[in-house]
Amino acid sequence: MFTEQRTNATANRITVTALALVMATAMAGCASKDRMTTGSVSRSTPGAATNVASMTEPQLRSAADSLGRAYTKNTKDKATALRYASVLQMTGRADQSLAVMRKLAIDHPQDRQVLAAYGKALAAAGELQPALDAVRRAQTPEYPDWRLQSAEGAILDQLGQKDAARALYTRALNLQPNEPSILSNMGMSYLLEGNLKSAEHYMRQAAQSPGADSRVRQNLALVVGLQGRFGEAEQLARHELSPDQAEANVAYLRAMLSQQNAWSQLSDKKKKRN
């Protein structure tokens, strides 16, 4: 029992470290106004020349301003609202993005694309149960959408239902074999429970699959770094980030893991005294 408790505690600390590093990566991207990334699926703005995932912060702010003006002229226009909500999420305005999607879902209550985007906006705002309901409403059992299955799995993972989440990822992969976004979500599922070897297995598959985006490869760098292979992690990160950002992220990870080891040693000493 002691070993199991200690393993779980270590997994929890690894999860905190991983989430903290992801936050630090996003903050570094904003601070340097360099390339910004999204989740495991790149978000392209329909009709736009530039992929949202590759926009700099000034470009995102400009896009948000222009799309905002277009949106106020016709809030029921689906394409404009979807673009606007996506850019708002990229600039960290999750609440505003959710407000746009909530209005769009009212105007288009049967539209699967709108319901799916609404579910993702809810999840980004931390409203997991409503997000789950929205994604499930968008799904049609007789003609299932692998994107919705993967999105539902990601929400279930955040709710702590890892077995149900992985079953959905497996079903999604049956529909869309070797899809990097699904493989990455599966890897994150194992990362959340502290199983780094399985996480790396799926992350590496995802990164090597055609169509893998920047965030997928950054997730692989994260998992490699969490196992103490800092040189390899930095090399992977340098392909996606500026050298300064890659170096800063690995340094941050080293510090976090060092603190984790120090905490573990103090905990062991305390137990021996008792």
TrEMBL record:
Biased-composition ranges for Polar residues? Answer: 37-56
Q: Where is the signal peptide?
A: 1-28
Tell me the superkingdom of the source.
Bacteria
Keyword vocabulary terms for this entry: Repeat, Signal, TPR repeat
| Organism per entry | Nitratireductor aquimarinus
Tagged with keyword Repeat: yes
Region annotated Disordered sits at 35-56
The segments carrying the TPR repeats are 146-179
Which protein is depicted? Tetratricopeptide repeat protein
Pfam families listed in its UniProt record = TPR_8 (PF13181)
